[in-house]
Amino acid sequence: MKIGKYQLHTIHSGYIGLDGGAMFGIIPKPLWEKTNPADEVNRVTLSTRNLLLVSDSRKILIDTGLGTKWDEKSRNIYRIDDNLSLEKSLSQKGFSVDQITDVILTHLHFDHTGGSTKIENDKLIPTFPNAKYYVQKQNFDWAMNPSDRDRGSYLKENFEPLAKEGVINLLTDNEFDDNISFEIINGHTFGQQMVKISDGTNTVLYCADLLPFVSHIRLPYIMAYDLQPLVTLSEKKKYLRQALDENWLLYFGHDPEYAAVTLKHSEKGIVQDKVFFDLI
């Protein structure tokens, strides 16, 4: 798929298992397990699906997935499967980490920025040596001093080295270039930026954690992880309505099956219409 000057490529960087109750909040398990079956300890499968935007002058990666810095205990807790690593997936598309010019981070939770750094010679360094990284300043500030509630989601090894190396750009607005802009949301965490790629005719919205799964299109389906669930509800209403009215394609980072959907009206409200396993 091409939008404006950018060719869009789906990049897979592994799978993780998280508690189904946490992923669906107040929704009873007999409802959510119809679309997202759980394993024997109640974990549902999340993809860490990223997006690569390629133009003549830039190769922009959106989010970096889990990374490979995990110890065995964490691998077991989160059922981490990184056989589809970021580097392997980029290579399959014909790209290398050295070619990435920019990394846009929607927010700094470990499943979105774990691949931003790596260990080399016992030192944490940026994974993409020639890239500038971008995140909202509000989210970076929160990540550096998170609450006790969400401290475990912000692992400083994933982003503090970027600041020390001087490669992270802290944003305070929502414009990037002629085809890329950000939608700033605060329900899941503070200063999360969804990435909107548009040429005025076609639009793709990288939904990040506003809509982890396609099943989260339903308004009450809100993660227990969200710091401000009522804000999330308001944000969902706003962006689902706009996406439907303007015929956006919604891109999902965590749905284990579907990469993107369009929307339609139904007697139950706004629901998915066409589904896509990949961007072609």
Automatic annotation (TrEMBL):
Keywords: Hydrolase, Metal-binding, Zinc. The keyword Hydrolase applies. InterPro entries: MBL_superfamily_lactonases, Metallo-B-lactamas, RibonucZ/Hydroxyglut_hydro. SMART domains: Lactamase_B. The keyword Ribosomal protein does not apply. One of its GO terms (molecular function) is metal ion binding. Residues 48-254 form the Metallo-beta-lactamase domain. Gene3D superfamilies: Ribonuclease Z/Hydroxyacylglutathione hydrolase-like. Belongs to the metallo-beta-lactamase superfamily. This is Zn-dependent hydrolase.
